[in-house]
Amino acid sequence: MRIGALKLKVQIFCGDAIAMGPGKADLLDAIEGEGSISAAAKAMGMSYRRSWLLVDEMNRCWPEPLVEAVAGGGRRSGARLTAMGARVRDLYRTLEQDVESAARGGAFAALADMVRSAPVQTA
């Protein structure tokens, strides 16, 4: 989220891996809307491989998988968010809103007022 000149990005780590961040939450939204990982990737302009790697990483970082994929090409094939996936995504979105609300005042606002719009050029 960008507020003035400052940008905040909420990321939750699992070791060195990003367990959840804005892009992964967007991917979960797309999977929920599209019904498959490949369609979600296409809608987001990313490769299927990249989206699958992100889903795999998320699934390995939480106590239960966030996305369940069903292969086969039949009527029941595709992907869906698990109950854990929907809960993690929804809690993450709430956290983003909380951070954005907190950022509207205090130290964040003071820093936004102080920072230059661009670096000073050196001779």
Automatic annotation (TrEMBL):
Origin species: Stakelama flava
Protein name per the record: LysR family transcriptional regulator
InterPro entries: Molybdate_resp_trans_reg (IPR051815)
Top-level taxonomy: Bacteria, Pseudomonadati, Pseudomonadota, Alphaproteobacteria, Sphingomonadales
